[in-house]
Amino acid sequence: MKSTKETLEELGWREWFGDQVTPDEVQQCHPVRVMAVHRGKIAVAGAGGQGFITPHIPGAKPSDDHPTVGDWLLVDRLTDQPVRVLGRMNLFKRRSPGDPRKDQMIAANVDTLFIVASCNQDFSVARLERYLVLAREVGVNPVVVLTKADLADDPDVFAAAARAIEPGLRVETVNGRDPASVAHLASWCGPGETVALLGSSGVGKSTLVNGLRRSDSIATQAIRARDGTGRHTTTVREMHRLERGGWLLDTPGMRELQLSDAGAGISEVFDDFIEVAQNCRFSNCAHGVEPGCAVRAAIAEGSLTSERFDRWRKLAAEEDASAARYTKRTR
């Protein structure tokens, strides 16, 4: 492996991971972190250096989790073969676009999630809600980062729409090409901290990574005039070293985010509807034409909105369908 001066703690090692390693494993293996996922190989880094290894774990069952970016692995000191994936603090995943019966892992062991959206016609409250559900489900602190503020007539309009999703949500507006504009995001990127970027294609994630790294090494492409979006440039899930010692985990843009096992996250993001629904006359109220529906009453009086209600029901229906598919798979 290529030599590096980084310690395990600088790579994000926590007591959580150390507690999982047995004395025998300490003698036979060393821990590495997955820094990038490529087709057929993974880039890893540890106290002994960095390099590429195969993601295949000998003896692993097809149903076992495979390494994803941000994971910690134990690697055999003699063979450089991965032995096992250490238990994760958290895991971001979605239903696979190619096969909705399967899950696709996105990133593991994240401290903060930057949910990236742009201040233009591509801005979508519904999409932000989906990412927030994902963050709440796995217990990771979310920060909404609105890019391309320099191109918007009034970026505060977009910020207000994002803040209205839930009380206390942290929302930052930035010009990704201006180091001074993105500098205040660095407070989440201290030594050993891992920040993941999630957002749809073309919202300026690569530009934001360059701004935080004070580098232009990641390719970016111009915005399309017809719809205000940039072109997708990130092709692999990869961790980037930041100036203040943290790690920025970039992921390919996702137009489609089908949630998986996200019931708790949906309930947390839409807790205003959950709370009101407890006052419905019937415990199994579908919030349609049933008498005594507190949700419909709240919508009628304006304390809840029908648009947000429709998004809540859509996500809940997707979660129900996902649970039904999982039950069918395990029978």
Cα distance spanning the termini = 44 Å
How does the helix and strand content classify structurally?
Answer: alpha/beta
The poorly predicted ranges are 218-235
Please give the CATH architecture of the largest domain.
3-Layer(aba) Sandwich
User: Helical percent range?
Assistant: 25-40%
CATH topology of the largest domain: Rossmann fold
> What integer is the average pLDDT?
83
For the record, the CATH class of the largest domain is Alpha Beta
* Whole-number total of structural domains: 3
| Biggest beta-sheet profile | 11 strands, mixed
Give the ordered list of helices and strands.
HHEEEEEEEEHEHEHEHEEHHHH
Beta content: 15-25%
Discrete helix count: 10
Looking at CATH, the homologous superfamily of the largest domain is P-loop containing nucleotide triphosphate hydrolases
Number of strands: 13
The rough form would be described as: globular
Round the Cα radius of gyration to an integer and report it: 22 Å
Task: Report on the architecture of this protein.
The protein is an alpha/beta fold. The protein has three domains: 15-88, Roll (SH3 type barrels), CATH 2.30.30.140; 92-250, P-loop containing nucleotide triphosphate hydrolases (Rossmann fold, 3-Layer(aba) Sandwich); 270-330, Ribonucleotide Reductase Protein R1, domain 1. It is 28% helix and 22% strand. It has ten helices and 13 strands. The protein has helices at residues 15-18, 23-28, 125-138, 155-163, 179-182, 205-213, 263-269, 271-277, 294-301, 306-330; strands at 29-38, 41-46, 49-53, 72-76, 82-85, 91-95, 103-108, 112-118, 141-147, 170-173, 194-198, 237-241, 247-250. The strands form two sheets. Strands 1, 2, 3, 4, 5, 8, 9, 10, 11, 12 and 13 form an eleven-stranded mixed beta sheet that branches. β6 and β7 (103-108) form a beta hairpin. The longest helix is centred in the last third of the chain and has 25 residues, at 306-330. Residues 218-235 have low confidence and may be disordered. It comes from Sphingopyxis witflariensis. One of its GO terms (molecular function) is rRNA binding.
